Amino acid sequence: MEYSIKTVSGGADITIKGRLTFAAADVFPKFLAELDKKEKGHWDIRLGELDFVDSTGMSLFVHIYDSANAAGTKVVIHGAKGPAREAMERAAFQTLFEFR
């Protein structure tokens, strides 16, 4: 898992790429701590280069949802495709996030 979080007007632009799996779970707390410091208006999450996500990786999105929901932050998922999008759709994440 590789990621970047950039501050933008009113929120954050987040890119997650590679494989979001159990092997990357030790990075999740750092990622969430960085994200928590960003403005809470909107978070745009770009997944165009996310190749795969397993159940542990899916838990990161649950944490993102919880944090965003508590702060009234709008989250939009951009560019999810292939196995990553399929996993997110099976988990009904379209009911939690807007997908574009």
What is the overall silhouette?
globular
Q: State the low-pLDDT regions, or none.
A: none
Helical percentage? 25-40%
For the biggest sheet, the summary is: 6 strands, mixed
CATH class: Alpha Beta
Secondary structure tally: strands: 6
CATH superfamily: STAS domain
Our count of domains comes out at: 1
The chain-level structural class is: alpha/beta
Mean pLDDT: 95
Task: Indicate the radius of gyration in whole angstroms.
Answer: 12 Å
Protein architecture, described:
By secondary structure, the chain is α/β, with parallel strands linked by helices. It has a single domain (2-99), classed as STAS domain (Transcription Regulator spoIIAA, 2-Layer Sandwich). It is built from three helices and six strands, in the order E-E-H-E-E-H-E-H-E. It has helices spanning 28-36, 55-71, 82-90; strands at 2-8, 11-20, 42-46, 50-53, 74-78, 98-99. The model has no long low-confidence stretch (mean pLDDT 95). Residues 1-100 form the STAS domain. InterPro entries: STAS_dom, STAS_dom_sf.
Question: Summary?
Answer:
The chain is an alpha/beta fold. The chain contains three helices and six strands, in the order ββαββαβαβ. The chain has a single domain, classed as STAS domain (Transcription Regulator spoIIAA), CATH 3.30.750.
